[in-house]
Amino acid sequence: MSNELYDMFVGHEVGHALYTPYNEEKEEQSKHEGAWCVDAQTIGGDKYGHIAQQYLNIVEDARIERLMTNKFPGLRRDFVTAYTELLEKDFFELKNNPSNTRLFVDRANLHYKIGVSGRQELGIQFSEKEKKF
Question: What's the CA gap between 83 and 89, in Å, rounded?
C-alpha cells in the first residue's frame, strides 16, 4: 500500500470520527446495523431501507472527504493519488463493467471518488433528471 493510499484511508476514517453524527438512541434502536440504518429505514421503509442506506453512505463519504480535504489541504493530493491508484488496480471493477452501464448510485459514488480527480476517460454520465440529484 502506498503512503498516499494509507493517508487516504486514514483521512477518510478520521473524517467519520470527526464529522459523522452519532446518535446513541438510534444506535440502540438499530441493534446491529448502526444509527444510519434507523434513518435509512425511516426514509425507505422496510422495502427500500437498504437502498436508502446505500445513498446515505455515498453522500456521507463524499461529505466527510470534502470536509477533511478542506480542513487538511495536504490530503487533497493524497486522495487524488490514492483514488487513481485504486482505479489502476481495478478496485472498482471497471474493466469489464464500464461506469456508464452502472446504476445511478454506483455512478454517483464513482463521480465523487474518482471523477473529482479529473479522470474524464471514465465516461461517467448522468441524465438531466439524475443531474438534479
Answer: 10
Exposure string for 71-84, b = 16+ CB within 10 A, e = fewer: eeeebbebbbbbbb
The answer to whether the beta carbons of residues 70 and 57 sit under 8 Å apart is no
Higher-confidence residue of 7 and 33: namely 7
What is the biggest distance separating any 2 CA atoms in the chain, rounded to whole angstroms? Answer: 45
Global confidence as pTM? 0.78
CA 110/CA 99 separation, integer angstroms? 8
Locate 57 and state its grid cell. 453512505
What's residue 5's pLDDT?
95
* Residue whose C-alpha is closest to residue 94's, from 82, 106, 104, 105: 106
Averaged confidence pLDDT in the chain: 82
pLDDT tens readout for residues 51-66? 888 888 888 899 999 9
> Residue 51, exposed/middle/buried by CB under 10 A (0-12, 13-18, 19+)?
middle
Nearest to 28 by CA among 18, 38, 20: 38
Cα–Cα distance for residue pair 126/53, rounded to 1 Å: 21
